[in-house]
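Ticket #4471: structure output looks truncated?

Reporter: J.K.
Steps to reproduce: submitted the chain below (495 residues) through the standard prediction queue, then opened the result file.
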Amino acid sequence: KLAAQDHILLLTMHHIVSDGWSMGVLVNEFSALYTAFSTGLPDPLPALPIQYADFAAWQHRWISGALLQRQLEFWRAHLHSAPALLELPTDRPRPPVQDHAGASLDFALSPALSAQLKALAQRHGCTLFMTLLAAWATLLARLAGQSEVVIGSPTANRHRAELEPLIGFFVNTQALRIDLSARPSVAQLLGQVRATALAAQDHQDLPLEQLIEALNPPRSLAHHPLLQVMLTWQNAPAGELALPGLQLLPALADGAASAKFDLELSLHEHGHGIAGSLQYACALFEYVSIERHAAQLVTLLQAMVEDDSACVLRLPLLPETEQAQLLDFNATEAAFDAELCIHQIFEQQARLRPEATALVFEQECLSYAALNARANQLAHHLRALGVGPDSRVAICLPRSTEMVVALLATLKAGAAYVPLDPAYPAQRLAFMLEDCHPTVLLSRSDCAQALPASVGVPLLWLDAPDPAWLLAPQHNPAVPGLTPAHLAYVIYTSG
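Returned output as attached by the reporter:
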């Protein structure tokens, strides 16, 4: 009671005694009882033909019967060699223990797209659920880079009329396996999903926990066994709360959100369209990623209704905003002076912004001025060793500051660099050295074991104590006759 005429009605029900269908039954019965009792009438509800205890007793007998074995054989075949984990791209590494902290994003499809989806489903003899399942499976498979996905989907499990008016936990979860390895079209995938969903409905009685126990998939505290994503289609009767003499307003409160799965897509028909939410595990995903995935799903659905002959793996996922963002990110083309060499463009930047950061490697940070000076010293030393235009300088270094200095110095000396990977076999490196005829080889002591016993060219250790090249001048070297037409690098490919 908040005031004389202002009250809040709060009903809390544990999932162990109710499910989504039960909520509609509860609301209708509550309304009927309130209406009757407020006017002095007796209980108007008809007697229930059976109780939940009767269903529980029947299920217990059934689980030990022959029907169980037939359904179990179906699910064994359906899930044979199915992937145990859907490895979606996440914003954070999966923690070793699932914490179930979750949040959700609400979204809605436009009335136009919702109508188009209904038409697509009707053309292919599918339900809206089947059509949405096909799209959800496609998005998940493409995000994960997997050809197969296993998606959980709750079913009301009230296939007898006597069960419909009962309040209780009847719902069961089906593990639906969708295979995109044959690169199906939209129409072909809808046919596959329809067959899968109908077969699952014919074998819906086996409880998921019994199936998991029988299949005994790999277990981990980090994720749910057998399936990590869900699709819930909310089509149970919602019930209507109507209490005579009272004005009712919904009082929505943000409860403690949880997530049993990595992702759970929940959808329902709302007015003239389809609406829903995308629930996610906060330990894995950021909200912005979930926003992006929801937009990708909408884009995919739009593409499906526009061309049901197209391969689902080639349909667009990026909405127009993301396409524009990618194009903007990659609009990096720039007009450079065609008469300048690469190192000369670098030298221009060193003059314009000498103190700006040019290179960061681990804990080392070099400005443009510092990097330019160090490369100049090595370039002057290379010139003294006879390096010039169209000569080759072999560089055997791991990713490091020295590698960048060596590449830049080689270009400043007018030569072409020949990168040698220290991880290559010595025989391969020996062939490359013999084939390219370098004037000098640049390396450092920790790469010595990678090099062939006899390199056949002068070898300059960049990490030698008191190296002579660090005594060379720091100004930009002049290389007479050097033009952009001279050789810049030689690359040996695996082919």
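Triage note (M.O.): checked the attachment and the full token line is present. The chain has a mean pLDDT of 90.
Status: closed, working as intended.
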